[in-house]
Amino acid sequence: MPVVNAHRVSIITPAYKAAQIIGETIESVLGQTYSDWEMLIAEDCSPDNTRDVIREWEKKDPRIKLVSMPANGGPAMARNEALAHATGGWIAFLDSDDVWLPEKLERTMAYARANGSALTYTGFRRMSADGVRTGKQVHVPRTLSYHALLGNTAIATSTVLVNRTEVGDLRMRKTYYDDFDCWLQILKPGRIAYGLDEDLMRYRVLSQSVSRNKRRSAMHVWRAYRELEKLSVLKSAWYFGQYALRGLLKYRQF
After folding, report:
1. Average confidence (pLDDT) over 191-199
2. The CATH number of 5-208 is which of 3.90.550.10, 3.40.1350.10, 3.40.462.20, 3.20.20.330?
3. Would you list the DSSP string of the chain?
4. pLDDT at position 209 over 70
5. Do 202 and 251 contact (CB within 8 A), yes or no?
């Protein structure tokens, strides 16, 4: 494992067919008011020129680092490969189609330290694929436990900051919702996640996004309860009802 710098944030970004949008994502990181970071972009064998685009940005700033996947493995494996190269005491996640507002890292770091938080998340707004239209702020609860998260959709991946000192070795399992599963595993021992209810990220809504397929998403959430968390049918039904209701309220408007 690489030497850990306690103050550095390692930004984990999986990238696949992202040539047209990864530049805007990188620019949002370069614009951060908190400067002690490294951005590890795991390029997952895209059929387009995503890897070449990342290499050009890598030349402009040594904090941007291309991690080349040997074969296409999906988001979880790409994130794990980037995590294996991370040198920061803090881990942030930023998907290749999302962008941060300038104070995202600074505000989240300060909030995490003030609360002694192992996992911190923030509010955000959706934006259209072309970046022109921005939706209303998606608010988040101040805290979430493991059991509360089972029935909640509040944690958006590109808002997450993890204290590596508290959590230790961080890896994602290869499952449909690898991010949701990861947050559950962090909280399962009894940790509490803290939410900063400020608008600090833009979530790009893409028509081909797998998370927009509600029926398929619901099926995989149910499987996560039953197969990964080993919950009974009754408990799974209870949490699924809460999850579905909160998801409906969350997505009822742009």
Report:
1. 98
2. 3.90.550.10
3. -PPPEEEEEEEEEEESS-TTTHHHHHHHHHT-S---EEEEEEE---SSSHHHHHHHHHHH-TTEEEEE-SS---HHHHHHHHHHT--EEEEEE--TT-EE-TTHHHHHHHHHHHHT-SEEEEEEEEE-TTS--EEEEE---SEE-HHHHHT-----GGG-EEEHHHH-S----SSTTHHHHHHHHHHTTS--EEEEEEEEEEEE--TT-GGG-HHHHHHHHHHIIIIIS---HHHHHHHHHHHHHHHHHHTS--
4. no
5. no
In the chain, domain spans? 5-208
CA 53 to chain centre: 22
Q: Distance between CA 34 and CA 127 in Å, rounded?
A: 24
Strand bridging mode 161-163 / 37-43: unpaired
Percent of the chain's residues with pLDDT above 70: 97
pLDDT of residue 206: 81
pLDDT of residue 210: 44
CB atoms within 10 A of CB 188: 13
> pLDDT digits over 55-69, tens only?
999 999 999 999 999
